[in-house]
Amino acid sequence: MREQIADRIEKLQKSMRARDIDAYIIPTADYHQSEYVGNHFKSREFMTGFTGSAGTAVVTMREACLWTDGRYFIQAEEQLSGSGIILQKMGEPGVPDICEYLEEKLPEDAILGFDGRTIGYEQGMKYEEIVLKKHGSIAYQEDLVDNIWEMRPEISKEPAFLLEEKYAGESTETKLKRLRKVMKEKGTNLHILATLDDIDWLLNIRGKDVTYFPLLLSYAMVSMNWVDLYVDETKLDSGLKKYLEDNKVIIHPYDDIYEAVKEISKEENVLIDPLGTNYAMVKNISSDVNIIKGENPTILMKSMKNATEIKNIRNAHIKDGVACTKFMYWLKMNIGKIKITEISASEKLEEFRRQQKLYMQPSFDPICAYKEHAAIVHYSATAESASELRKSGMVLMDTGANYYDGSTDITRTMALGPVSELEKEHFTLVAMANLRLADAKFLHGCTGANLDYAAREIFWKRGLDFKHGTGHGVGYLGTIHEGPIAFRWRIGEHNQMLEDGMIITDEPGLYIEGSHGIRTENELLVCESEENEYGQFMHLEPITFVPIDLELIKPEIMTEDDRKLLNQYHKQVFEKVSPYLDEKECRWLEKYTCEI
């Protein structure tokens, strides 16, 4: 594999040389800035061999580098070893970011290349600024990887489907009215949408074009009277076409958007999200057109779930809790008796999920990480790397599911046998952090940055930390990492206030390289509490119901309040999940949710 990667890099450099390109950027992206992408768009993985979900490669005539974040440092080091590709650990001292690297490496009159459809407009403009300072230019109209990638998978041809109102909770008609009202307030009469979850939410459609996310590859231009939808029409059946027609949606070929934007009149005021629209599309718009930059209004709209969505999501989490609890029981009963690997354990959990009504597919790449593998935050087992689970140590399972009535994301770390006292202490700290954040009560106006300390305090007081966000928004059959909210402590990140109806994860962890990793994750619903002379108070309600492994808890290091929070949570788990278990499973759950 290492030789193949080196050969691909060499072929790319040869292609660059023929076009006088000094550096070429390969991001992890499709044409819509999606987090996960279909197989056709995995150019960065093809060129580097790194399989993580986040990373950007930059190839110059002298070297190739890969940037990725702290979740993937260990994985990237292993997968890049021997390939000649230099790992750039994002955020680490002394490590330049991509822009700093380009400023240093690009010569005068440089040509910087990338496929402009895969680079977000805002990021592309940062690259453009660097190049213009050097009196150079951008080559963005060609995908050089496509020239190298033989047997490249085709773009998905899977059929789309309508998400009925009994699941969506709101009609396309009223969503369009709400969007057009905001457009008018912003002084715009045309809005270009390229992010798939925004388009699909707006039109109540879904597809099967993105790995793990039930989304449809498409672009949309929303005017005050109709919507132009750019999509592969073969994916739409007659019923869906009629639905779209009834909502004044006009269908055009998928790739025609790049020519269509060239025809936008200079009389138009166009709303574009620079983070959600690709560089090539915006550069194709005439400079005479008035572009108003701002976040897609649909981002905030879809993050505030309506009553129907919340009811459905609660139901989905009960089913998911049943599946995960059944799996936990199965694992505890069978470990050491039959062969179980990281891969077969993930497959068994999905088998339990498939037994639940309205199950669709996993909501992201499942993580099953045993012992030291769990220290790799986003570890992904392969046939070569998968460990056999044995009757000792801990296993971390970070998994999720898409049901027609909602998407789930849950992490549990479980004891498979004897563990060290340090592992128990770390597990207990993580559980305490999870429960304390879920118990937060706060005034309306707080953001995730305000609340992140509720989870991290217990680690920071001990000189510990974890290098990932404490929580992210969750979509309804959209993206599992949904904006605009998150629990992150850094100032300036994710400034959106937490609003009633939003759903966010709560997932602190601890990771000790070469030893163990622990994460406990629930989803939380943001709810209004009382309103008084001080303002509107808010609280967080857990909607994930799966036991937190009591075999790993050290009650003596918990405060009385911490033990009370755990007992209250486990009481809810038993009440909600036990009616769906058989007699043996129910007796086991009673023991595993007993008061401490």
Give a structural overview.
- The chain has 596 residues and is α+β, with helices and mostly antiparallel strands.
- The protein has 3 domains: 2-148, Creatine Amidinohydrolase, Chain A, domain 1, CATH 3.40.350.10; 161-300, Creatinase/prolidase N-terminal domain (Creatine Amidinohydrolase, Chain A, domain 1); 304-425 and 441-525, Creatine Amidinohydrolase (Alpha-Beta Complex).
- Helix content is 35%, strand content 20%.
- The protein is built from 20 helices and 28 strands.
- A 6-stranded mixed β-sheet has the order 4-3-2-1-5-6, with helices on both faces. The protein has a 6-stranded mixed β-sheet with strand order 12-11-10-8-13-14.
- A hairpin with a 3-residue loop joins strand 2 and strand 3.
- Helix 14 packs across helix 15.
- The longest helix has 28 residues, at 307-334.
- The model has no long low-confidence stretch (mean pLDDT 96).
Concise synopsis of the structure shown:
The chain is α+β, with helices and mostly antiparallel strands. The strands form eight sheets. The chain has a six-stranded mixed β-sheet with strand order 4-3-2-1-5-6, with helices on both faces. A six-stranded mixed β-sheet has the order 12-11-10-8-13-14.
